């Protein structure tokens, strides 16, 4: 994932797999699409205008096409999203595809603490995915465990992962190497 040929200490690719999230996405999509289909069927096929000041048939069909396209985009966005995390001796690299096309290197200079944490994505960061707040950035797609990097300026980065202890150990090894310390993994 990173451009530099370096020893990979940790690599993980995560997708949205939470059944409750998928149930909500599919449920909302089905209700919205079903409602629009019912409106179109009633007005265009059966000839009964929908409401006292009904839209024209062409406007209703256009609205149906737009809503269907938006719903398809919404579902596909979650279906193809991948959070890739990689730690090498050269640093920490993250990409939340397709929102981030380029791999981003997380700055490890200034990190004061690396620790596995439990978190609540909706309460602490406003949801899943790539979330940025004033002093925090979070990359999450599933679960409630991650690694938090605290910086001396009060900012932090949270990386959701299925292996919080392994990711934290890999980041610590990369930090030790960057600081000129001994590397225990080599």
Would you mind describing this structure in some detail?
There is one protein chain. The protein is of the alpha+beta class and 186 residues long. The protein has a domain at 19-80. It contains four helices and nine strands, in the order E-H-H-E-E-E-E-H-E-E-E-E-H. The chain has helices spanning 19-45, 57-80, 121-125, 164-178, and strands at 8-15, 82-88, 91-97, 104-106, 111-118, 129-132, 136-140, 145-151, 156-160. The strands form two sheets. It has a five-stranded mixed β-sheet with strand order 5-8-9-7-6, covered by helices on one side. Strands 1-2-3-4 form a four-stranded antiparallel β-sheet. Strand 8 and strand 9 (156-160) form a beta hairpin. Helix 1 runs antiparallel to helix 2 (57-80). The radius of gyration is 23 Å and the shape is elongated. Residues 182-186 have low confidence and may be disordered.
- Subunit arrangement of the protein: single chain
How many beta-strand elements?
Answer: 9
Specify the structural class. Answer: alpha+beta
Morphology = elongated
Radius of gyration: 23 Å
Order of helices and strands: EHHEEEEHEEEEH
The share of residues in helices is: 25-40%
Unreliable spans: 182-186
Mean pLDDT across the residues is: 89
Query: Spatial order of the strands in the main sheet?
Result: 5-8-9-7-6
Question: What's the main sheet like?
Answer: 5 strands, mixed
Q: What percentage of the residues does DSSP assign to strands (E)?
A: 25-35%
User: How far apart are the termini?
Assistant: 20 Å
Q: Treating each run of at least 4 consecutive H or I residues as one helix, how many helices?
A: 4
